[in-house]
Amino acid sequence: MVREAIRWLLSSLVLLFVVTVLTFVLVAMAPGDAAKAILNARSGGYTPQQYQEMRRMLGLDQSLPVQYWHWLDHLLHGSMGTDLFNGQSVTQALGSRIGPSLSVIVATLVVSGLVGVALGIVSALRGGVLGRLVDVVSLGGLAIPNFWLALVLVELFAVRLAAFPATGYTPFGTDPVQWLRGLVLPVLTLSAGAVAFIAKQTRDAMSDVLSQEFVTMLRARGLSTRSVVLKHALRNAAIPVVTLLGLLLVSLLGGTVVVEDIFAIPGLGQQAMTASASHDLPMIEGVAFLFTVVVVVTNLVVDVSYRLLNPKVRAS
Amino acid sequence: MVRSLTTTRRQALIAVATAAVLGLAACSSSAKPPTQSGTGSGSAGGRVGGTLTVVTDVSPQTLDPAKAVQNDAWFTELAYEPLIVRHSDGTLVPGLAASWSYTGTGNTTFVLHLRSGVKFSDGSALTAQTVVDDLKYVVASKGQMAPFLAGDTFTATDPLTVTITAGAPNPNFPQLLTQDYVVGGMVSKAGLAAPTGLGTSTAGAGPYMLDAGQSVTGDHYTYVPNPNYYDAKSVSWHKVVIRVVSDVQSVLSTVQTGQADVAQGDPQTQVAAKQAGLTVASSPLLWSGVVLADRDGKLAKPLGDVRVRQALNYGTDRTSIVNALFKGLGEPTNQMTVPDGYGYDAQLNSTYPYDVNKAKELLTAAGYGSGFQLKIVTPDYQQLNILAQALKQQWQKIGVDLQITDDADANKYAAAAFGGAFPAFMTSFGAIPVWMEGPSLFMPTAAFNPLHTADANLTKLYNQEAVSSGAAQAALDQQIEGYLVHQAWFVPVVTTGLPYYARNTVSGISTSATEPLLDLYEVQPAG
After folding, report:
1. Any CB–CB contact under 8 A between A270 and chain B?
2. Which of A220, A295, B115, B367 has the fewest Cβ atoms within 10 angstroms?
């Protein structure tokens, strides 16, 4: 167990190193740089001398390995640097945005997980029209562009019915009710596709499990359908669904940009987008580092879930 | 010296125009219940409302007034009262300066007399030396407006008097030191001593100051009253929140649903805002059209002939284009300014009526009766790409084959257009004083003159304008405008405005041709 933990930790560190190095290299390869972005933003243009001066000020004239080493050195001392444009600490900037992002992502996972699994089970048990309906809804959910759905939801539920706010995010600590109200429309938008996907995956996995011999045996022993499904079949069928939820979480990390944009949620997706557009390397590295940490932790949670759900994995 | 000054001015003015092109924004957001917005009540002069929430679609990169751009004016003006305030009717009224004037002739010496008893939000006093230090900081910061002050000397003549001695005539010091150009807002001594902090905090002498604890950079910025403000009676709100909502449709939804009182809108949503019953204020701000950059015929020989350039103007059916693309949002124009703006002359608008035959005659006389190809680059903003397509269709009728390069990447477009790679390019340009417009739009080193056309007559007029004032200056502005129109350096097509939306919770939503930007100082609780 200890050996496995050490192995996981080491592989995680390697992953973090690789991702942050790759990010540095990719940012350097992208056309333009922060010096140009700053000069363009402040004065609309620049002379070669001004450009070189700005590069020196930002440390961009140093070699890539040296720049990376400086960044890593700061990280090991607890700092991820500062925003090149306004001097704000990257840690502080990301800290203020992780709450909104996690709120949206976790709420989306919960909603899409619960609704998707429920729909999948019902569909697997009933089959027929309901099964086909889940298929249709799946395709529909995946086909509807989320920016369009978001605009429709805003028009309907915010503008016409005044049931939910059209934009903005209220921290839970400030007002839990407003926090929840503000999440409804963005989460509905993001869940549309995810629910469909999870429902279909659950239905397929559940149908497969229900056709296995051990389920027939359980039924023969007189167990109720509810017990067979919820206590035995679902546990087996849940493995691919857990994988899917893990993937969904990772994809939502950076995939919420459009929803954050439309609902004006100050999340990490927006921050990543802004930083990338302006070549703000410390911020890009900070976001990449944070995303990688979340991915690593998500993988760990998924792995642990496998062990809990599947004795074979536990035994191996 | 002159070279470096004009070069840097040119660079700054690219940004001025770009700012105008991109919409002159400001921003911020907070997600509070709708009922908290615009809960104003009270009495005028001391009328105090609850929270004013305003929305814009652009986030400021910095709050430092020396480095911020025009788009960020809302974010800076609340905390940094400028030396001179431009009222919504365009008049200039005292801000931190009680009075100001040029001395002598030639627009090279400008004197500001500061208000007495003014304190910054940190409690320190406003002195002439603070202003001098601030202006020096502006120049050293090399921000958007620094070139307009570069080469100038700043002197504290006495504790409350500042004298600016310009390196070259500058007839627009009063305009430059208003909130519109950001650098008029003064920073305290402590703020100047630690400029890094100015990116995310404020140290001004304005009616409000940033409450960093209630703000999230890039999302919403909360301003609370400055306890040391010299005119506490004029503070209209307990709190002002500027929200950043980047999606223009969401900006409208935010105001519609009562989550905000005021918003900087977008032409795309202007009609919907009116239909939703919001107050919509919009004054002409931009002209959009073609820069015929190659007036010497270096890249496209036909453009070297003024008759060809005039033919393109005659061959443009502005009314049809406006009706099709800008109905209710803009007006046809022949000029590089907006109605009642700097240098505007109503008579010039009849210079180029749509006349295909006249256009063909001119082309034939110039030796291009069988037509020619013209390459043009366009960005995608302000519908310029669609406007270019409309011109392509219209100019086919006079034999001109417009070869359009549509560059969605604004930076790539800017490199192509301002780098002199195309003989013509589409643009939207903000209405600014003619003296400030020159180094950007038409003088030899101007960014919008990338092939550096020099015209002795134009330069002479410009130099005369730089040392003039009052009616003489206005007349010279019109002469310059007329000269440019008759020389057909451009094909202006339409003037459009920047719309602002407001709910009935507020009043003071007013703009004008000489102040098309909404001034937050004037927004008050309704009633």
Report:
1. yes
2. A220
Distances (CA, A) of A14 to A6, A284, B248: 12, 19, 42
CATH H-level, domain A97-315: superfamily:
MetI-like (1.10.3720.10)
Q: Which of B4, B35, B62, B196 to mutate to test the interface with A (most CBs of A within 10 A)?
A: B62
Question: Is residue B55 packed enough to be buried (19+ CB in 10 Å), middle (13-18) or exposed (0-12)?
Answer: buried
DSSP symbol at B514: T
- CB-based burial of residue A213 (10 Å sphere; 0-12 exposed, 13-18 middle, 19+ buried)? exposed
State the Cα–Cα distance between residues A268 and A34, nearest whole angstrom: 20
Cβ of A262 under 8 Å from any chain B Cβ?
yes
A170–B31: do the CB atoms touch at under 8 Å? yes
| ipTM of the prediction | 0.81
Q: What is the pLDDT of residues B432-442, one digit of tens each?
A: 899 999 988 99
DSSP assignment of B432-500 equals --HHHHHHHHTSTT-TT-TT----HHHHHHHHHHHT--HHHHHHHHHHHHHHHHHHT-EEEEEEEE--E
A89 touches chain B (CB under 8 A): no
Fill in the DSSP letter of residue B348.
Answer: G
Which DSSP symbol is given to A230? I
Instruction: Report the distance separating Cα B48 and Cα B92, nearest Å.
Output: 25
Phi-psi category of residue A185: left, alpha or beta, with phi > 0 → left and psi -120 to 50 → alpha: alpha
CB B23 within 8 Å of CB B71: yes
Dist. CA A179–CA B33, nearest whole Å? 10
Contacts of residue B456, defined as CB under 8 A and 6 or more positions apart, other chains included, come to none
Cross-chain CB nearest to A86 (options B146, B200, B247): B200
Residues A217, A228: Cα–Cα separation, whole Å: 10
Domain ranges in chain A? 21-76, 97-315
pTM of the model: 0.83
The two structure tokens encoding residue B485: 């129109």
Q: What whole-number distance in Å separates Cα of residue B479 and Cα of residue B465? A: 10
**How many Å apart are CA B32 and CA B27, to the nearest integer?**
16
Q: Which residues of B468-482 are buried (b: 16+ CB within 10 A; e: fewer)?
A: beeeebbebbbbbbb
Q: Mapping DSSP to helix (H, G, I), strand (E, B) and coil, where does residue B242 land?
A: strand
- Token digits for B141? 């910061």
Tens of pLDDT along chain A (316 residues) come to 678 778 888 888 898 899 999 988 888 888 778 887 777 766 555 667 778 888 888 888 888 899 889 889 988 888 888 888 888 899 999 999 999 999 999 999 999 999 999 888 888 887 777 777 777 777 777 788 888 999 999 999 999 999 999 999 999 999 999 999 999 999 999 998 888 888 888 888 888 888 888 888 888 888 888 888 888 888 888 888 888 888 888 888 877 888 999 999 999 988 888 888 888 889 999 999 999 998 888 888 888 888 787 766 666 5
